[in-house]
Fold this protein.
Amino acid sequence: MKFTELKTAEYRKFEQNHPYSNLYQEANRIELRKRMGWDIRALGLKDKNNKIVAAGLLLNKKGDAFIPMGPILDWTDTEILKEFLSKLKSWAKAQKIYALEILPPVHIAFYDKAGKVQKTFDQSKIISVFEASGFNYQKDDRGINLRSNTWVATKDTSSFKSEDELLKSYTRRAYRYCPEAVYSKKVTIKEVESKADIEKVAIAIEDSNDKNGLKSRPLDYYLWIKEIWKDKVHFYLATHAETQDIVAGHIFFDTPNEEVGFLAGTIQKYRNLNAMTVMEHIMFKRAMDLKNNRGNMYGLEGAFTPNNHLLAFKGIFNPVIEQYIGGFSIILNKPKYLAVKTFQKSKGALGRIKRMIKH
């Protein structure tokens, strides 16, 4: 089999028609990540008939590389996986990549919102292939992985015939806020497209990011998303019904296999207006109307504890909590890896000293 870099068009055709296609591996991310300063490659494995049998987007920053929620392939075919990993390692070494992580789009368990196991998946063959290829398995990751979500909250919308049926599938707490006749008294929620309104959506999202200690994104990031995804992305803005103040913002993506609510945020002083509850409902209704099978609220921590506030919020929609297999990592250049880690540790210590002197 031939391992090669793929043209965006051929990669797009492959991933858009594959059951493992997902937002992290969409071809549109190539352009977005390039604008963000990443080295991103669409890599593929082709059979003797020149047909793509495996492909994935690899992101690289100064030799530290990863494949989020990928690669895309038939995960029951371990021979293809073995070949992909073998060829990928050789390619990565030639590119002077010193560390590589792969986060496959395969599940190990489904839970209800209380943490009760609903279904498990035996992925021992996949784990064995990775370990035989020299990768280290980082199992049981309970946190929010910023490279690729290990835990997500989803809802199957394929059986609902009406919005009323969908609403009745939620808990009472969610149901009471979502009807338009209720929420419209407090907030106005609409899809927006202008630069000025997209900026307002960004302001709401970044306000939540600041609260949660996440790195801020510039306005250009949001404008690039709209420019690149075009009619496959939807910006929703909530404003105060009386003052027209910004209340909340949410971004939905139409993908081949699901509707995704990927970026969202609420201005903290308006949390009691429950605009985000309504927006998540809008996302699920879009999934139902588009016959897209399910809505995905994406990341959360895999800790079924009372202080997991994100799980508590997403749980009001009675979702399935899906746990993915997690990451597999390999060090391809140990001296380089150790040098980078030593530098990062020294830089962190210097930063702490400066903060101590400043205070």
